[in-house]
Amino acid sequence: MSRTLVVRGKHVIRPGSSGPASIHIQDGVIMAIDKFDSAPAGIELVDAGDDVVMPGLVDTHVHLNEPGRTEWEGFHFGTRAAAAGGVTTVIDMPLNSNPPTTTADGLQAKLEAARHQCWVDAGFWGGVVPGNGDQIEPLIADGVFGFKCFLVPSGVDEFPEVTEPDLREVLPVIAGNHSVLLVHAELPGPIAAARRATGSPRSYESYLSSRPRTAENEAIELLIRLSKEFAARVHIVHLSSADAIPALRRARSEGVPITVETCPHYLAFSAEEIPDGATPFKCAPPIREKENRERLWAALAEGVIDFITTDHSPCPASMKRMESGDFFQAWGGITSLQFGLASVWTEAQRRGYSLEQVVEWLATRPARVAGVPRKGAIVEGNDADLVVFRPDAAVSWPQVLHHRHKLTPYDGRPLIGIVERTILRGTTIYDRGEFAVSPSGKILYGLLNRLNKASADEARSLFFRCCGSSKWAALMERRRPYSSLNELLEQADRTWNELSVDDWLEAFRAHPQIGESSTSKWSQEEQAGTRSAEAAVLKELAEANRRYYEQFGFIFIICASGKSGAEMLAALRARLNKDRETELRNAGEQQSLITRLRLLKLVTS
Ligand SMILES: [Zn+2]
After folding, report:
1. DSSP 305-328
2. What's the CA-to-centroid distance between 314 and ligand 1, angstroms?
3. 533 CA → ligand 1 middle, Å
4. Would you say 279 and 319 are in contact if contact means Cβ atoms under 8 Å apart?
5. Distance CA 189, CA 218 (A)
6. Is the dihedral of CA 29, 35, 39, 45 positive or negative?
7. How far is Cα of residue 91 from the mean position of the Cα atoms in its chain?
8. Fewest beta carbons less than 10 Å away: which of 218, 277, 374, 580?
9. CA of 237 to the centre of ligand 1 (A)
10. Residue 261 Cα, ligand 1 centroid: separation in angstroms?
11. CATH 3.20.20.140 location in the chain
């Protein structure tokens, strides 16, 4: 059943513009963004008033640890904490679950475990470990968004680290599939050579000095070289060492396909303030000095660091060894999913950054870099994942913590910014401390690679379903592979505009007439608005269609998604009596829109 809803606010954050707006939502998708007071009478309305409406956040680095270590967190607790923190999409890391996501079977086990448990949408990274090169393509085909590996021991035995020869083996496969390799960038050499500052294992200074910046810097130098050599996309996870920024800046300016994330804990805390024995702050690479932290902020502002993820990595409290305070025995990982937004916003506003900028870092860019379609921005056609946020309100302690384990360095910390409400694909999943009755998160797949890998015949027929010009479908097939969704959509438009009028007419003929029944599932969905139309409207549509065809010699083409029968009739009438050339252009533009929506469906569902 079709469900419509309007969410409106005085401060709606959209790419490139913020201000009063109404977001019109149908069946979980943003259909239109209109003036603040454009909600039709009687429609279901969420009025955010003076609060901010922003896109649901996209956290591409979380460890939910299920199956195998569900007692550390699990999909249920982790994704509830996400919802409470304004995060509507998570991409789960391949390790700390057992089996790890390093084989196609491991991914199946994870999909099985995640089903019906997730409160937000969830996708998965695969893992690269020594000897699993033959699993890369099967994992891509099954829908992972890319691959993660370690250059130092990961902390769990079933996910061993890789060396440069291993990377040389898998990078051509990853590059060939237009996938991406995420790397925990610390090299073991500098860590082995490091001298501890003090003898006490309770001393933070001691732990910090055991994981020197050079371990990160040298790893990043290696990864820049390899990324360049193999033309492979490499993504540096959780950058801590600001000393690596000049090399990254240079590489990026030379066009090396390398991207970078950092985490809230590197941006909020500093080594100077961490008391001895305070193991909830332990993570690897470690939280470094104030001076380092401020350079990370500058690199974010400059764009050398692309975005921020939480690297939420919880464990049972006992593993943090609070009684001994031994940094070298404690589990390395910070519990943070619920407080990622508040902690980043607290620090960002203190430094003069806008909430719009924070949304870029926590939603728009991670969605883009990880290739998660229809997420991370309030634009027409995207999923209606929205957060109602109160940016000036202070978090009051104690707070209900929704992670399974409550030990987190954010507990009791002065934080600004409260998530009032979280909406996932049009459904409120969290509202001032209350959750929906049951979880409604979906599994997300990286399907673009399937299109790239399909046989020529199969790809042509998939493209032909999106646009019924055989020339267009053949060209789109030949112009594969597409390394991103954007590249695919842009190429679709460009190719369409290269075609002849006859090619366009062929594509138009593939559509059923508006108001006519069709066996095509996509046409049926697109024309859903005519199903509920009254008989009188349908009759008038048929009559107007006939006149249109007589006048122009091709059928009336309109991107019908979300439009009612009456709206389509009005549009049809407005386009009658134009000259043929103008009307061809109109129809061509509508076909472009239809193709776009269909390509998105193809790649994302
Ligand atoms: Zn991690």
Report:
1. S-EE---B----GGGG-TTTT-TT
2. 10
3. 52
4. no
5. 9
6. positive
7. 8
8. 580
9. 8
10. 11
11. 56-378
578, with CB counted inside 10 A (0-12, 13-18, 19+), is middle
CATH number for region 454-604 = 1.10.3330.10
Ranges in the chain annotated CATH 1.10.3330.10? 454-604
Predicted confidence (pLDDT) per residue in 540-585, tens digit: 988 999 999 999 999 999 988 878 888 889 999 999 988 999 999 9
- Contact assessment for residue 101 and residue 139, using Cβ atoms and an 8 Å cutoff: yes
Q: How many angstroms separate the alpha carbon of residue 193 from the centre of ligand 1?
A: 24
CA neighbours within 13 Å on the CB side: how many for 368?
A: 17
Rounded to the nearest whole angstrom, what is the distance from the C-alpha of residue 66 to the centroid of ligand 1?
A: 14
> If you measure from the C-alpha of residue 172 to the centroid of ligand 1, how many angstroms do you get, rounded to a whole number?
24
How far does residue 93's CA lie from ligand 1's centre (Å)? 7
Reported as a pLDDT band with limits 50, 70 and 90, residue 235 is very high
Length of the chain: 605
Residue type at 189 in one-letter notation: G
Q: Residue 513 carries which DSSP code?
A: P
CA of 311 to the centre of ligand 1 (A): 5
How many angstroms does the Cα of residue 570 sit away from the middle of ligand 1? 53
The tokens describing 44, both together, are: 């279901």
- Tens of pLDDT, residues 82-107: 999 999 999 999 999 999 999 999 99
pLDDT tens column, 293-351: 999 999 999 999 999 999 999 999 999 998 999 999 999 999 999 999 999 999 999 99
Just give the CATH number of 56-378.
Answer: 3.20.20.140
Helices 470-478 and 501-509: crossing angle, nearest 10°? 100
> How many other CB atoms are found less than 10 A from the CB of residue 401?
18
* pLDDT at residue 130, rounded to an integer: 97
From residue 524, how far is each of 120, 507, 512, 521, 530 by CA, in Å?
Answer: 28, 17, 9, 5, 9
Instruction: Encode pLDDT of 110-153 as tens digits.
Output: 999 999 999 999 999 999 999 999 999 888 878 899 999 999 99
